[in-house]
Amino acid sequence: NGTNRLILMQNPVLAVRDLYIDGSQEDTANLHVYKGSGKIVLNTSASTSTFMEKQNAITIKYIYGMMEESSTSTTTSADSTAGTSVALSVASESGFTANDWVEIYGMDGFREVAQVSSTASNVITVDQLVQTHISGSKVVLLQTSANFTKLMNLVVSIALVARIVGESYKDIVGYTLSEMSVQKGEPYTQWRETAIQFIRERDDLMSRIKIRPYIA
Fold it and tell me: Rounded to two decimals, what is the model's pTM?
């Protein structure tokens, strides 16, 4: 857009892995990344000072998603370098497994997200690091927000209730004995009240979630 900043289509941005501007690769270490808003800014060390307005001139590979810190964490015991398949020396690998997502940050001010490839005794290997990180940096296990997990379960439950009510004729069985007859089945009012409760909980959770994207 002719300036040194750009708003990405999706956010929150967990990590920017690759950037090309008009065919030239820019070191992603030369970016300031604003996680919440999805804004990225070229710093003064970048080889290109602005994002070009030319069509299809900018190609970005980045990771985004809504994740939050868990209570599981450790610290690095040595400086780490940028690159792929980076082995982090840590105080403990307990609680971390392959395919987990972790966030790494320390007093150097660098902060980024990576995926765990494997673990060994006091070692966590991650898929890629864009920045270097000093010894003593914190490595935190990320997890899906409990609100999103509950919201997903509620949406599925509402759909399930609707399907059960729609197919309730399959649950109804008729019994006849001489002049007496009875129809046995699941009462609709019970399912209706269940659905109303689920919908209220869903709407309450939705009201707590901020509309995205937003600018920070």
Answer: 0.72
